[in-house]
Amino acid sequence: xxxxxxxxxxxxxxxxxxxxxxxxxxxxxxxxxxxxxxxxxxxxxxxxxxxxxxxxxxxxxxxxxxxxxxxxxxxxxxxxxxxxxxxxxxxxxxxxxxxxxxxxxxxxxxxxxxxxxxxxxxxxxxxxxxxxxxxxxxxxxxxxxxxxxxxxxxxxxxxxxxxxxxxxxxxxxxxxxxxxxxxxxxxxxxxxxxxxxxxxxxxxxxxxxxxxxxxxxxxxxxxxxxxxxxxxxxxxxxxxxxxxxxxxxxxxxxxxxxxxxxxxxxxxxxxxxxxxxxxxxxxxxxxxxxxxxxxxxxxxxxxxxxxxxxxxxxxxxxxxxxxxxxxxxxxxxxxxxxxxxxxxxxxxxxxxxxxxxxxxxxxxxxxxxxxxxxxxxxxxxxxxxxxxxxxxxxxxxxxxxxxxxxxxxxxx
Length: 412
Ligand SMILES: Cc1cc2nc3c(=O)[nH]c(=O)nc-3n(C[C@H](O)[C@H](O)[C@H](O)COP(=O)(O)OP(=O)(O)OC[C@H]3O[C@@H](n4cnc5c(N)ncnc54)[C@H](O)[C@@H]3O)c2cc1C
What we know:
Elements: E1 3-8, H1 12-23, E2 28-31, H2 40-43, E3 47-48, H3 61-71, E4 76-78, H4 84-96, H5 99-126, E5 133-134, E6 138-142, H6 145-155, E7 161-165, H7 166-172, E8 182-186, E9 190-192, H8 194-207, E10 211-213, E11 218-224, E12 227-233, E13 237-238, E14 240-245, H9 252-256, E15 263-274, E16 284-287, E17 292-296, E18 301-309, H10 318-329, E19 338-350, E20 356-359, E21 366-370, H11 376-394, H12 401-406
Parallel strand pairs: 1-2, 1-14, 2-10, 4-18, 6-16, 14-21
Antiparallel strand pairs: 3-9, 5-9, 6-8, 7-8, 11-12, 12-13, 15-18, 15-19, 16-17, 17-18, 20-21
Helix pairs in contact: 1-8, 1-11, 5-11
Bound molecules: flavin-adenine dinucleotide.
The site of flavin-adenine dinucleotide has 42 residues, from helix 1, helix 2, strand 15, strand 19 and helix 11.
């Protein structure tokens, strides 16, 4: 029997699409090649950082990264590749980082960040879900005077940003050392525990009759009359009215629909551990000169860093873990970490921080929901709502204002 909606990929984006669509009365099947405990949506930092924080593609990012690379401290690594697509991506990324785009991106981030925060709060208050969620700001911590002063010019007259001295920063982050100059508290941002969130959302969706087909890989899309007529998996075949492709960084199936998006996997690491309660950070923080995030959770603390482009090797490379510890030690006193868990995953990174969302231009029943890069947790609820509105109300990209504003199909 033909299904209503099949979502391929059960990361946070696929799950949030399912959440919004089941609320609209649609019948959903989620197919994932794993069991949802491994992808980018599970091991990330959990920052909800849409407010007052520069996007990745901002003017100066290329020069700053090159300087750090020369000093051997860069969190960014670019692996040489024979794939010309990577060089096209890098070129377009550098060309996108303009002042004009920055203003537009910041405004879009605020719009969809607020929408997402409201949906997260609604899930906690009205759906009876229970996941670790805090709206207590994001601390940007600096050791480099030049970087701090540049940000000071931007933030000194900005609403909802508090400038903190070294001493005040220490109250939020007891482990910092004397090299720290000060910090900025971006008060509207927050954080959650992505592991708890994915587990809790899956439980909620199961209770609300969403079907999960796990450990089942979609291997082939079959096309007929400008539609997907059937999909083949490692176990069976299915057909549906509508298909949503939310496969994260993996664009194998999009290529079958003749799409090669300007998206690249950007590998990152997280290290999760327990530490003494009185030393734990009071809120989430970004050690901003070297892009290391530190997020307190219910019982643990997680640090994340690195942005490796041109690698699809899923293994944990010890050299990278050691480099994260080394960079962290530039900001902190030595502190004891126990019960350490290391993880690596891939961000689906577009050239300009704009997601790949909307109907395929050829296949009428195929919708994309990916390309959220380093902000998938920040925007997942908004993406779920946009995809729901697109499928159930507007039915065309051109009549959905959010697709026109936010999708990389229109912001290329
Ligand atoms: C180190 C790190 C730190 C991060 N920190 C943050 C942060 O602080 N805040 C934030 O907002 N974002 C953060 N992110 C980004 C965020 O994690 C991602 O944007 C988000 O998880 C992407 O979700 P997704 O659902 O698109 O992809 P994924 O979570 O990768 O899910 C895609 C799913 O598709 C499945 N799949 C793929 N191909 C197939 C197939 N053929 N058949 C069946 N299933 C398939 C996969 O198994 C996977 O489960 C971070 C990412 C990393 C790596």
